[in-house]
Amino acid sequence: MQIMKCALTIAGSDPTGGAGLQADLQVFSAYGVHGAGVVTALTVQDSSGVRAVMPVFPSVALDQLRVLLADITPAAIKIGMLASDDVARSVQLALSGFATQIPTVIDPVLAASDGTPLLERRAWPVLRELMRGARLVTPNLHEAELLTEIEIGRKRDCEAAAEVFLEKFGCEAVLIKGGHRDGPPDDLLAIAQESANPMTWLKGERIDAGAVHGTGCALASAITAGLALGQGLEEAVNHARCFVATRLRGASGLGSGAAFLAPAREHS
Prior knowledge:
Radius of gyration: 17 Å
CATH superfamily: Ribokinase
């Protein structure tokens, strides 16, 4: 019997399906990977923005993970929205012992696009602790600035922030996304063990799709799915960037607010 690959997402629920746990599962399916999901928070939101955030009971998050991981070992894990300090600590406790065994991608979700906080400020230290040993962390420019306390104006500032993620926070690699940058939206991929050339700038294309919901979630979950399939990190990142760009070109509106990425029925 062939054993299917499984990826686990630990994230908040987005009832629109455009981001969060629902979007992650769609991406996993598009890659041909079985998706498992642990909910960290419920949200009240539509395509225009987030109205309310309700973290799950920390003990429920802990029990979900403990019971699941005792039975199923995912090939890769994605951590998204954690909502509260207590939930973040429960996730940290449940994953202790797994961090070095299973490649983990962390999308450090601090706030929604409309500015609504999605992680308590007091939880930021726990988020940084979770990054230690993570295969990849995928902050956007604003998240990188807040977490490293480095104002990013030039590429050299971005590289300095990447060094903080690698040397201080202890992740194996960081992808600082440049979509919010003026000019070309190039991403910076920094890998700790690549001592000869640790910083690689990945050229980005500015796709005129307007405001689109869930691009960061889709990118991180696509990378996670690639890692679950056995792709190397750089291969997984490059495939994921192409995957998101293709869906971004076909983005369309469903509600009165931001557009949604085009569905992907299959991915190769």
